[in-house]
Amino acid sequence: MGRPRRLRVVSIVGARPQFVKAAVMSRAIRAHHDEVIIHTGQHYDAAMSAVFFEELAIPAPEFQLGAGSGSHGQQTAAMLVGIEQILEAGRPDWVVTFGDTNSTLAGALAAVKLRIPVAHVEAGLRSFNWNMPEEINRVLVDRMSMLRLCPSETAVANLASEGMQQGTHLVGDVMAEALEMAIPVARRRSTILATANVRDGAYILATVHRAENTDDPLRLRAIVDALNALTEPIVLPLHPRTRKALDAAGVGLAPHVRVIAPVGYIDMVRLLIGARLVMTDSGGLQKEAYWAGIPCVTLRDETEWVETTECGWNVLVGASSERIVDAARTFAPAAGRPALYGGPGVAATCVSILERASA
Ligand code: UD1
Question: Are residues 189 and 308 in the same domain?
Fold first, then answer.
């Protein structure tokens, strides 16, 4: 049997982690089909957006909506209006959405109301914490999707327990491929260790950006206290949301915490592979740390990537100063590190599932 007809796919991106996922998916889609990228403009600073397109050679978005920041309602509504117009005019065969941001929600909602089928990459993840905007987005987007492409068996099981067996596929994680390709490039090209004034294997890489940590002064304070209490160098690429929260709270960081501007993907990968330990509230970085073999201390009370904790490479410490400091000093990963979330070829699998579902 030959290849099915050429599909017309619209991919929706807007925030940093989506650029990484779209880079891999876009290549796989464009190998046999037509793709149009809509950038919602959720992330708009050059360091949060343009640098990812350059480094990951993502095709320039055909549409830039410039939705920008704002309340959840304002931001999502602006995206929804813009995406709907484009989809209505273009009537693609599929809309592909990634992860759990407001851009994911707007893309899926615009499409499903126009009866354009939605494929959700990174489906089925759950934190079971309904206070997280991401959890709301995940649940709603999965419900609206015709194809749910899951990174883990846990994700498949989560969807089954919500009655979504049909259209659910275990494919693995597209981010693994991006990381594998970026590691040699990062080793060759990145000079970020010198910029941050740290040596390979002798620093902690920390990131903090989740609303649950940045928008709660007590949690933010506790995390900062823990970073300040540690003595080894800590590199902290600072998300603009966190910078604003720190400024507003008047909280200062000790000199061993090397605060740097948000970094692009290649520099982030270099910081990751050189780190002794990762400390983060990011979802993506928990997986990347696992793949790179760097132990991870997660500044959250739960994780969607439960396999990384079950394997003994990730520990949840919430926003408790003592637990953070203790884990940073004593956490040692398990001896074995089984393969998790698939390897290369995940994006191609996603595309073949789209093809089959279109036949
Ligand atoms: C969003 C996602 C989160 C994801 C993260 C990745 C939602 C609900 N959250 O969070 O799941 O992990 O992206 O980074 O979609 N800002 C700038 N410049 C930018 C972008 C943002 O200064 O280019 C500042 C603005 O003050 C803005 C704030 O950061 O209000 C938060 O941005 P927003 O898009 O609301 O969400 P993120 O915190 O980035």
Answer: yes
Pocket of ligand 1 (CB under 6 A): 15-17, 42-45, 48, 69, 100-102, 133-134, 209, 240-241, 244
Q: How far apart are CA 170 and CA 150, in angstroms?
A: 5
Number of domains in the chain: 2
Residues near 302 by Cβ (< 8 Å), separated by ≥ 6? 127, 128, 129, 316
Strand-pairing partners, residue 148, are 120, 168
Q: Which domain holds residue 319?
A: 178-330
- Are residues 168 and 186 both part of a single domain? no
Q: Is residue 127 within 8 Å of 135, Cβ to Cβ? A: yes
Same-domain status, 188 and 135: no
Instruction: Compute the distance from residue 240 Cα to the ligand 1 centre, in Å.
Output: 8
The amino acid at 90 = G
Q: Whose CA is nearest to atom 33 of ligand 1?
A: 69
Q: With respect to residue 16, please indicate whether it lies within any of the assigned structural domains.
A: yes
- For 27-93, where are the E strands, in sequence order? 34-39, 63-64
Note down pLDDT in tens along the chain; length 359 residues.
566 799 999 999 999 999 999 999 999 999 999 999 999 999 999 999 999 999 999 999 999 999 999 999 999 999 999 999 999 999 999 999 999 999 999 999 999 999 999 999 999 999 999 999 999 999 999 999 999 999 999 999 999 999 999 999 999 999 999 999 999 999 999 999 999 999 999 999 999 999 999 999 999 999 999 999 999 999 999 999 999 999 999 989 999 999 999 999 999 999 999 999 999 999 999 999 999 999 999 999 999 999 999 999 999 999 999 999 999 999 999 999 999 998 789 999 999 999 999 98
**Of 33, 43, 209, 239, catalytic:** 209
CATH of the domain at 315: 3.40.50.2000
94 C-alpha to center of ligand 1: Å? 26
> Is 336 among the domain residues?
no
Let me know if 169 is a catalytic residue. no
Q: Is residue 337 assigned to a domain?
A: no
Do 350 and 323 fall into the same domain?
A: no
Q: Which atom, in ligand 1's list, is nearest to the CA of 100? A: 11
Residue nearest (by alpha carbon) to ligand 1 atom 17: 240
Residue 2 lies in a domain: no
Query: Which residue lies with its CA nearest to atom 16 of ligand 1?
Result: 240
- pTM for the model stands at 0.97
> Across the strands, what pairs with 258?
235
